[in-house]
Structures are given as C-alpha cells and as structure tokens.
C-alpha cells in the first residue's frame, strides 16, 4: 500500500512538472445550424420556341439576325408570294363565277324554272370555292412570318434566297427575362423539398447567389436516375443568367436556431467515443460529446458542451485530461484563425 501511494505521488509530481501546451480556444456560443443539402442543376430558358414555315417558298426578306430582341407580332421574314397570289386570284375568279351562278339558279328556282337539285349543286360548288379561297388567302398570309412571342433570336436557320420547305425551321426565339432552374431530387429528400417554397441558387460562372421560387415539382421520377424534377423560377431582368449554365441548389431540410457547434477537426475519436477538450483555469479537461447535425465544417454538439465553454481548437491533439495548457489566443469565431 505504501509503495502504491509513493507511485501515485510520483505520477502526480510528474504530471505537475509537465510543461504547459500552447493552445487556441474557441468561446462557444449559440448559433444557427442548418441541415443543408446541395444538388447540381441546370438553367433553362423560360420559353424556347422554334418558328416554322407554314408554307414553302423562297425567302425574299429576312429582317432579323441572331441576338436581336423581337416583340410579339414583329416581322421576321417573307417568302415569295407570287405563286400564292396567282393561286388566290384564280380561285377568287372561280368563286365569283360560282356565286353568280348560284344567285341565278336561286331566282330561276323561285320562278320554278330550276330544280332544287340544280340549286343545291350550285350552292355546294360555291361553298367549295369559298373554302378554297379562304385557304389560298391563309397561305398568302403565311408567306409573312412574324414572331409568335417576344424574346431573343437565339438561332437563325435560313438566309435570304434560300428555298424553305413546309415546317422548316426559320428561327429559334427564347425568353430569358426569367429562367427555369431544373434539379433532380432523390426519393429520400422528396418530403423535405415538398415543404419548401424558396431555394438558394449559386452560379459559379457569375460568382453570385440568387433566391429562386418553386414553380413545379414532378409527381413521377425519371426512369433511369430515379430523380424527381424540381423546377424553380428565377427572375433575370439583366439577362446575365444564360441557359445551360451549371448551378448548385442548396436545400435546407432542418434548422436549429440556437445550437452549440464545433469544428469537425476539434472532435477526437478514441475507443469509439467522441471527445473534445475544453480549457478551464489553465487546465485541459476532456468531455465526451454527442453529435448532431453537420453543416459543412461544423458539427452540432447535442450533449457534452454548453455555451461559454472554451473549446480547444488548436493543440487539442497534444493534450491529455488534467494537463496544464497555455492559452495563446481565445477566439469568438473560427474565421478569426484565418486572420
């Protein structure tokens, strides 16, 4: 017993003779902690529309170029109208003749000089020519191609003098005064996303972060990836956000407004236990901690630490429980270490 007592005294004496280890401490205080997820996404034009030729013919006028801003109804191109104009004149002459014939037969029928069958045939022929005249007028009108929507000419597929066929692309018009942000959401996160209305969008190409609003959340998943498409709307009045830009969408699943957190590297694992060292009156004390949410480099401490504790964030790997420490710096937030 005496020998054991002497060994204990010797160990305590050696411990007291240990030089104090230099450490840096972080004063813990309640902070907002969020369970955040980040997903890749893509920008799409709000509207993307191909303007097609509804008749065939040679392009005689082309009033736009790529990059032009156009208004709804603005003239884009004209096709050669001569064939369509001649066709309309021919059909109109036939229609006028059939109209006069129908009027004569109606009078003759009234005088009982023509049969009902003859009158019906004349009226049917007149109506047929009228339908053909309407079609000819429509085809003539379609030789003038106008913008169906306001937007920007993103692509021009024809040049002046080219012969275009029916339903051939003339231009592509896009609207980007607001854009869509499209991201795939895994099945495990659908419930969390369904409850949200706004999202933080970061675009590395611009070095900016924006706030987008939920527009549409798909009710079915894509077959291969098993992702549910989330579409968001993002205002873009300066046209700085362009289609096909890569974005990152940050989704906050849960928030804790007054949580205690620590840098990940300040938490040690020994014998399957999570440990942290705090400084108290120049002595390092070990605390077993329970972890919660992780937000980037921070981890929530649900048990073991409290507000006001001085957590050792540098030098903690070189100390042991009860060892003297020399606090060379006490910081209020971890960003101060970078200064």
Q: Quick summary of this structure?
A:
By secondary structure, the protein is α+β, with helices and mostly antiparallel strands. It has helices spanning 2-17, 82-110, 116-142, 190-194, and strands at residues 21-27, 31-52, 57-62, 69-70, 75-79, 144-146, 151-156, 163-164, 169-186, 198-203, 208-221, 227-235, 246-259, 261-263, 268-270, 273-280, 283-288, 290-295, 298-303, 310-314, 325-331.
List the helices and strands and how they pair.
Elements (H helix, E strand, L loop, with lengths): L1 H16 L3 E7 L3 E22 L4 E6 L6 E2 L4 E5 L2 H29 L5 H27 L1 E3 L4 E6 L6 E2 L4 E18 L3 H5 L3 E6 L4 E14 L5 E9 L10 E14 L1 E3 L4 E3 L2 E8 L2 E6 L1 E6 L2 E6 L6 E5 L10 E7 L8
Parallel strand pairs: 1-21
Antiparallel strand pairs: 1-20, 2-9, 2-13, 3-5, 3-8, 4-7, 5-6, 7-9, 9-12, 10-11, 10-13, 11-12, 14-19, 15-16, 16-17, 18-19
Helix pairs in contact: 2-3
- Number of strand elements: 21
Question: pLDDT average, as an integer?
Answer: 90
Percent helix: 10-25%
Number of continuous helical runs: 4
Q: Low-confidence spans: pLDDT under 50, at least 5 residues?
A: none
Top-tier CATH class of the largest domain: Mainly Beta
How does the helix and strand content classify structurally?
A: alpha+beta
Which topology of the largest domain does CATH recognise? Answer: conserved putative lor/sdh protein from methanococcus maripaludis s2 fold
Radius of gyration: 39 Å
Number of domain modules? 3
By CATH, the architecture of the largest domain is named Beta Barrel
The N- to C-terminal Cα distance equals 55 Å
Strand order of the largest sheet: 2-9-12-11-10-13
Overall form: rod-shaped
| Beta strand % | over 45%
N-to-C series of helices and strands: HEEEEEHHEEEEHEEEEEEEEEEEE
Q: Largest sheet at a glance? A: 6 strands, antiparallel, barrel
